[in-house]
Amino acid sequence: MDPTAAVAPERVEQSADQLLADEPGFLSETPLSPVRFGRIGWVNEMRLRIEALNYSWHRWVISFHLRQGSLLEQWFGDLTLWKLALALALPFSLILGWVAIGLLRQRRPRTLDPVDRSLQRLSRKLAASGLERRTGEPVGYYAERVAGARPELAALMSAVAGHYEQLRYAGRDDSRVQRAYREAVRACMRNA
């Protein structure tokens, strides 16, 4: 029952565009209104299809949570606290294990080759006089720093740095250069 029909029956019997067609301001701000072109068949059909598409879209998006719940119920069955805890704990434990393995690999000491090991021993020997090699310090700079503090070791440290750079960076891995490097390191350790 429509109570407005008793007050103004034309509101029920006529459409909005028929009722307000005589009003001067009706649809004046929307010249391309679909209601204004409602009498043209293909425009009206297009308007109805757009509205149907809009309705389908809203129905699909708004009722998505209902379908999502039923989909999860189909996959996992009845959702209990234990299933939820397991679903959260499994990925968390995998990520935690991956991080732990990465940290353990990082802490594993690297085995040094004989060239780096002998340089490390020389650095520890010179650390007694405050000349330990700093982390990340290039060997050439280290040799210059030691030569500045201990001029008697300047020639030996220059030889150590030169041979080290030949072994590491010049691709010269012959036994003659290795022997000269070891002799220079021993001489530095004797004089340190």
TrEMBL record:
The keyword Isomerase belongs to this UniProt entry's keyword annotation: no
Spans traversing the lipid bilayer: 81-104
Residues annotated as domain Protein-glutamine gamma-glutamyltransferase-like C-terminal: 120-179
Sorted UniProt keywords: Membrane, Transmembrane, Transmembrane helix
Keyword Lyase: no
Domain of life: Bacteria
PANTHER family documented for this protein: PROTEIN-GLUTAMINE GAMMA-GLUTAMYLTRANSFERASE
Protein name: DUF4129 domain-containing protein
The organism of origin for this protein: Marinobacterium aestuariivivens
